[in-house]
Amino acid sequence: MKTLAKLAMSLLALSSLTLSQASAQGHSHFIKIPETVEGIWKEIGNQQTKLDAVVAAKNLGEAHDHGFAIRDLVRALPAKVAAERKSKAEEAVPEINKLASAIDKSAAGGAQKTTEENVKKLATAVTTLQTALKAK
To answer: How far apart are the first and last CA of the chain?
Structure first.
């Protein structure tokens, strides 16, 4: 009986480990933040291109990954920009966060048109931020 209980506990522990590893791998929006502001802007552009492509291909299941990657990159900007631009970077974070969440919600619901609209709003917010920070 003890052997059966140990076996069951081992299997349970193994399945928990496997599930947690699968969960971590399933969220590609966990992105490495570049060291420089220029690198962050380049990666934001890369993620926007990928977001546009998956939405155009009606592959909404991946849209949240790219929307949240953009969110995470924007969140990193206040710590990296020049001191006089920090407040402008911080002001943009809540709006970008809201739009990334809206993309997640509309994409999860399979709402193609709403997701496309949310992606456009996100692109506008990023462009506005880029202009405010005088980024290249």
So the answer is: 68
Q: Which CATH number fits domain 35-132: 1.20.1530, 1.20.120, 1.10.3470, 2.40.128?
A: 1.20.120
Q: Which pairs from 8-11 meet CB under 8 Å and 24+ separation?
A: none
pTM score, two decimals? Answer: 0.78
Question: From CA 95, how far away is CA 107, in angstroms rounded?
Answer: 18
Q: Which residue has the tokens 């969220």?
A: 27
Q: pLDDT tens digit string along 2-30?
A: 665 554 454 444 443 333 333 333 444 57
* 36: DSSP letter: S
Domain ranges of the chain: 35-132
Calpha distance 68→31 (Å, rounded): 9
